[in-house]
Design goal:
single chain; alpha/beta; Rossmann fold; 2 domains; two-stranded antiparallel sheet; 13% strand; globular; HAD-like_sf
Length: 240
Amino acid sequence: MNAVLFDFSGTLFRIESTESWLRAVLRETGIALPEPELVEAARALESAGAMPGGAQPEQLPEEFAEMWAIRDESSALHRAAYTGVSRQVPLPDPALHDALYDRHMTPAAWTPYPDTEDVLRTLHERGIGVGVVSNIGWDLRPVFRAHGLDPYVDAYVLSYEHGIQKPDPRLFSVACEALGVDPKDVLMVGDDRRADGGATALGCGVHFVDHRPVTERPDALRPVLELAGRGQRGQGEPRG
């Protein structure tokens, strides 16, 4: 393998819990909410799928279905989709919905998986190109910089910057071109079998991990070092 492409959310980083997300915004805005109401609001927000990088909506309102399907193609669509489903949940101040969206884009809302730094650094030291390919509506580069991981990433390919979402092979093609590598010499690592599996259309290998809390997934990325080192094509089953 000459390069490894990684998904962002659920692969290299994990978003905070919905309750932590809501607590942080309430604290920042100075709005008090009784504990039982806070817990219930967090549960409702999670059920609605209001937090980007979090759970999918349990029941997506029909009026959001079309926008939801293409939400990662632009920053405007991304914000509108997530704040739209968020507003299905009553909160003490309507401005909290936008504040919650803004919170999820901050480095403090994200935690790298325990093996993320070691794997990225080792690949970089071996001279293997590293790219991040994400379906997302905002610039995640500050998250990598804040956590000290930016020096190990050679290219960021973000869906909203290209108007293309995974599994469209064109997004993976952009990443391969940015790294100057043949797709057949590339391994794609992600947690979404449909979205990240789109790389196989170009001939890339794939390796899947499970989207779990950081405390429950200490070393799922480490097999990537062996796969890249041996030049293997990747695996179809998760190593969580």
